[in-house]
Amino acid sequence: QVQLVESGGELVQAGGSLRLSCAASGLSFSMNAMGWFRQAPGKEREFVAAISRSGLITYYTDSVKGRFTISRDNTKNTVYLQMNSLKPEDAAVYYCAADPVYGTSDYHTASYSYVYWGQGTQVTVSS
Prior knowledge:
The protein has strands spanning 3-7, 11-13, 18-25, 33-39, 46-51, 58-60, 68-73, 78-83, 92-99, 116-117, 121-126. By secondary structure, it is mainly beta. The strands form 2 sheets. Strands 2, 4, 5, 6, 9, 10 and 11 form a 7-stranded mixed sheet that branches. The chain has a 4-stranded antiparallel sheet with strand order 1-3-8-7, with no helix packed on it.
């Protein structure tokens, strides 16, 4: 049984930092690209960041570039999202997801490419 369990979400002031973690079990973690998505109330789920299976390649949506960093530790089956300089518009439920990455791509940004999803962790940013 595959499980992705996010943690680290909490209330933070604008300009602050948070580190989200996602612990994976029940899958070959190193064979999956990993992604972070977020969904704010009344909005569609959106892509935030992705990391290749090796961790050498990362990709970010424009709104978080330079502020967020995705990383992974394949020895711990865990992917992280370091979020700095948080803004009120970053507030959302954050989800991690696993992508088997069939084919030659290193990662995907479309949610339909991701097979397994966590339950989400709430990030609240006060202004």
